[in-house]
Design a protein that fits this description.
Radius of gyration: 26 Å
Largest sheet: 3 strands, antiparallel
Strand order of the largest sheet: 1-3-2
CATH class of the largest domain: Mainly Alpha
Number of domains: 2
Structural class: mainly alpha
Bound molecules: zinc ion
Strand content: 5-15%
Distance between the termini: 67 Å
Length: about 140
Amino acid sequence: MRLQVINEYSDFTSRRIHCFALGASLVAKARPKKPFIPAERYETIRRLIISTLGGKTLSAKEISGEVGISEKDVYGHLEHIHKSVEREGGHLIVTPAECQDCGFVFKKRDRLTKPGKCPVCNGESITVPLFSVSG
Ligand SMILES: [Zn+2]
């Protein structure tokens, strides 16, 4: 039945059918080998960051070194960690960035990343914020 169907198509079409079949089997085989399912991996990384920050105060750069992800990703995870830690009754303690020229402290900053410039003196020597988890 199958052979008969293929014979009825031109060579070109049967080759395309073959490619489709091959593609499908590759996808099916590749799926279990995929290194991670993003949502679960994020959860694992966040747990790892939370445990790394338990009793320690670290900068995003130091967290990135401990956990093995980029500094940019650390900041992304920290936003989520903030919420999940609070939900569980703990706290993400942020030591705010500080201008080394005039001493201005970025206390009201909502974003967790390091500010680029001091709004008071325009200085660019700004310490990085530090993070810790309590509770
Ligand atoms: Zn300043």
